[in-house]
Write a structure and sequence with these properties.
single chain, 9-stranded antiparallel beta sheet, GH65_N, Glyco_hydro_65_M
């Protein structure tokens, strides 16, 4: 039986500059304050508006659906939050439940307030909150639940309050963010354990939807306040308010206790895929569990617009990726989810499949065949939405390769030929066609002029090695998969694969690009190592070892930056250095941990580009999970039998004796992974 995850330590007091807790289910994301009744931030997958600074299509906050308030006499908590004392929060990653506690004191009256907040995985349109208020002495209090629109920019229409006009429940509304690019429906129900009488206010106007209860409490007597809110984006329903009313009403009939139990069952199922690093220090296992949790909490099979670099976590000050879908999602988040939660992985690539026409138009604008996917895909339109002049959008060639590669990995992991033929193959073939049009034939072979790699620099170099190594893997996959389904394979694919030109130095090192210098801007970026893993480029032993030695020796010049640092332990293990693998798990991943509840940051706090805390950063998290599931065990996902995926001896960080996963999903079957230090191969066995 899978062991429970290690939860983060509880947090006491005000959070200071730390990020608030992030609670999500892949369709809804909440930032919950340390006083959780005060409105935080809410993101609903697929709801967009113009970014207030750049004007581009971006994910935008919506009204906070689980706000609440408490009054002792005429003193409301929202009006006097400084009257809250002894703040405590703890997070149960095993169930996805955030627990908050505080004391609300006005004069001689003190209330102990305990709040549990979660986003339902079984009913992914619902978020729920249970507040338990206990009086220290007899008193009368008032309780409010409200949908608070103050954190959002937009307007409220079709507002309905309790009674027949609300269609059930206390109220519902249609929210239209500024710019009118999308809208969403919100409906809410509440229940007070000591009274059935609630007052809905205001009944008219455009203020927050509020339900109020008056309760007399004896000393030591608790009262429970339940909140259930349904949120529906217009991307999934053309009349989202009405659908939100139906979903909220269904949730109310089931009740919070039943929905909580179902949510716990859903998380228990996901945690069967827990990655256990036997012998790792508890802090490292805790961070592995946290990364596992945040990635799975940010994706759901029902996610309509994939997920973003920070999942569905929004907070003022770091929204500089605008909720866009970027290459990191396809390259770093899809592979582990294919093994852990394949339905959620499918939703991420389905986003790309829904926007193939935008990708075809994008390629045609360049005068190229096939499909070219955008660098920063807008959540609703799927079109390019990079801000300003978008240099990376114009010159990065590797993004589309990751999109197509993700579909090939889906085919190898799921074995779903119908999906491959209907959705995956057109994209794999379209990107392969675009790639052959993007490469240029020279006397040296098929070269890639002027293309940005992971090291985004103002003057893109020629022959970026990471892109070319990824291109080699994609073309091989496209040829193999096409042959397997009887598709016509253009001769140009094999011709370009055979002719691919990869820069090489005289000492065997694969440099980052043509005319590479280690002292250039971002020269320590280990992108050729990322070509070896996770892109599986089949370098010869001499160049493989020389490239590992060259870039591993310069890790201090790169760690602190985002994305690739999480792969360092796998690269050190490939070089046979167990101590360095352990050191680099700490330096390349664990050191990015800061603040509350292990929200892995984009940059380490000691990095000069770390302006504000920004997390949980899914590229770092996905890279770590790929290292744990594929890199350290030595697995290569392919069309072969999964028992053949292990392809090299197992080398783990110092002190680690094994990596074990009780349940991975491979071609519709539950499988186990056992990677024991020193063994010739890891094992993938039936679960």
């Amino acid at each position: 039986m899978t062991s429970a995850p290690l939860n983060p330590p509880p947090c006491r007091g005000a959070r200071g500059s730390d990020l608030p807790a992030y609670v999500g289910n892949g369709t809804i994301g909440l930032r919950v304050r340390e006083i959780p009744l005060l409105a935080g931030s809410a993101i609903l997958n697929g709801v967009v508006g113009p970014d207030p600074d750049k004007g581009i299509e971006a994910a935008v906050p919506i009204p906070y659906p689980l706000a609440a308030d408490i009054a002792i006499g005429e003193a409301w908590l929202s009006d006097q939050p400084w009257a809250a004392e002894d703040l405590l929060q703890s997070y149960d990653f095993g169930t996805g439940e955030l627990f908050s506690q505080f004391l609300f004191r006005i004069g001689d009256v003190a209330l102990t307030v305990e709040v549990t907040t979660f986003a339902s995985r079984s009913d992914c349109s619902l978020v729920l909150q249970e507040s338990r208020i206990t009086a220290g002495q007899a008193c009368s209090i008032r309780l409010r639940t409200l949908v608070d629109s103050r954190p959002a920019q937009g307007r409220m229409t079709e507002r309905r309050t309790g009674g027949p006009s609300a269609g059930g429940g206390e109220g519902s509304l249609l929210w239209v963010p500024e710019g009118d690019l999308s809208h969403c429906g919100i409906a809410f129900h509440s229940r007070c354990s000591l009274t059935d009488d609630s007052m809905i206010a205001p009944k008219f106007g455009s203020g927050p939807l509020v339900a109020e209860y008056r309760v007399d409490l004896r000393a030591g007597q608790p009262v429970e306040l339940h909140q259930i809110a349904a949120l529906i984006p217009s991307i999934v329903h053309h009349r989202p308010r009405e659908e939100a009313v139906r979903r909220a009403s269904l949730g109310a009939r089931r009740g919070l206790a039943r929905l909580r139990a179902l949510n716990r069952e859903s998380w228990a199922e996901i945690w069967k895929g827990r990655i256990v690093a036997q012998g790792a220090e508890p802090r490292h296992q805790q961070l592995i569990d946290a990364g596992f949790y945040y990635l799975n909490a940010s994706a759901h099979r029902s996610s309509p617009a994939a997920t973003s670099m920070f999942g569905l976590a929004h907070w003022p000050g770091y929204h500089y990726y605008y909720g866009h879908v970027m290459w990191d999602i396809d390259a770093f988040c899809v592979p582990p989810l294919l093994l852990l939660q394949p339905g959620a992985a499918r939703s991420l690539i389905d986003f790309r499949a829904r926007h193939v026409e935008a990708a075809r138009r994008h390629a045609r604008l360049d005068g190229k065949p096939g499909m070219r996917f955008p660098w920063q895909a807008a959540p609703l339109s799927g079109e390019e939405a990079a801000p300003d002049d978008g240099p990376a959008a114009a010159l990065a060639a590797h993004l589309s390769l990751h999109v197509a590669r993700a579909f090939s990995l889906d085919a190898d992991c799921t074995g779903d030929l119908r999906y491959l033929r209907d959705r995956g193959w057109p994209i794999i073939a379209g990107v392969a066609d675009w790639l052959t049009g993007r490469l240029e034939r020279t006397q040296r072979g098929a070269e890639l002029p002027c293309a940005t790699g992971p090291a985004e620099v103002p003057d893109p170099p020629d022959n970026d090695s990471f892109t070319l190594m990824t291109a080699a893997d994609l073309l091989k996959r496209a040829i193999r998969i096409g042959a397997g389904i009887g598709a016509d394979i253009p001769a140009a694919w094999q011709d370009m694969l055979d002719a691919l030109y990869l820069p090489r130095r005289s000492d065997g090192v694969i440099p980052a690009h043509e005319d590479f210098r280690i002292d250039e801007d971002k020269g320590a970026t280990p992108s050729p190592l990322a070509g070896l893993f996770p892109m599986d480029y089949p370098a010869g032993e001499r160049e493989r070892q020389a490239t590992l030695d060259f870039f591993l020796s310069r890790w201090r010049d790169y760690v602190g930056s985002p994305m690739l640092a999480a792969f360092y332990p796998a690269w050190a293990a490939m070089a046979g250095d167990r101590k360095l693998a352990l050191d680099l798990f700490e330096e390349g991943y664990a050191a990015y941990d800061a603040g509350r509840f292990h929200q892995c940051l984009e940059y380490r706090v000691d990095h000069p580009d770390s302006a504000v805390p920004a997390g949980p950063f899914l590229a770092n998290i996905g890279g770590m999970l790929m290292t744990m599931l594929l890199g350290l065990p030595g697995l290569r996902i392919s069309g072969d039998s999964p028992e053949a995926w292990p392809h090299r001896p197992v080398t783990l960080p110092s002190g680690w004796s094994s990596i074990a996963v009780d349940r991975l999903w491979v071609r519709g079957r539950p499988m186990r992974l056992i990677a024991e230090q020193g063994k010739d191969r890891a094992q993938i066995l039936p679960a």
